[in-house]
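User: Earlier you gave me the apo prediction for this protein. Now I'd like the version with adenosine-5'-triphosphate bound, so I can compare the two side by side. Same sequence as before, with the ligand SMILES added.
Assistant: Got it. Here's the input I'm using:
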Amino acid sequence: MIELRELTKRYGDRVAVDGLSVRVQPGVVTGFLGPNGSGKSTTMRMILGLNAPDHGEALIGGVRYSDLNRPLRTVGALLDAGAFHPGRSARAHLAALAASNDIPGSRVEQVLRIVGLSDAATRRAGTYSLGMRQRLGVAVALLGDPGVLLLDEPVNGLDPEGIRWIRELLRGLAAEGRTVFVSSHLIAEMALTADRLVVIGRGRLLAETTVAELVAAGDDSLEDAFFRLTSQATDYRGVGAS
Ligand SMILES: Nc1ncnc2c1ncn2[C@@H]1O[C@H](COP(=O)(O)OP(=O)(O)OP(=O)(O)O)[C@@H](O)[C@H]1O
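And here is the structure of the complex with adenosine-5'-triphosphate:
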């Protein structure tokens, strides 16, 4: 489980994340929705100890990321699909990570198979398409067989096959009892992928509910529900969008 307690982050006089308290449960896919700049990435970075909160805390299984013994074995993350050494092969990249995290080398071949990169494993990551880089990022997240997965916009730039692949993978990982927390701009995609939703606007919690309950609240679609919830929480919406 991921637990956020009054999580708060300021950049100068702008509050990026504002007293966010949420529990993300295991066994289901939880979608993390919010307009651009609402604080999703900042929240994920704080969960992963990459940004320090100004107030509150983020706990993974009751423990802060910085206090985890073997972080890759507890939580896997996909934040930036481009972040690989372009001259290294996928296999070399995964093998180096496994070695430095006490993960058996045999796990490298397993995750390559799971993400469908076995045949391309010796190619330099710099030659990979966006979809292949995304798959390599997922392989890194799965390397330690973690019980908690955090993915920031995993379907960005993917083709329909890649989107379906991510959707089925995430649902399968949740069905195994893992905690899966995934941010996205694609509301229709979240309707297909997520069981629960956390919606934020200007860093604040707007809704924490199931997809079914949110749509049942009198809206025609999840998209309508999203616009209703976030209508007061963006700085930039034009007249045609709500
Ligand atoms: N390093 C930083 N320095 C200053 N301001 C920042 C920094 N990182 C984020 N912000 C600001 O914090 C707010 C939240 O940004 P964040 O990237 O977390 O939102 P987001 O919901 O992930 O947005 P998007 O959907 O566009 O990716 C924004 O106003 C952003 O400009």
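For your comparison, keep in mind: Residues 76 and 150 are 6 Å apart (CA to CA).
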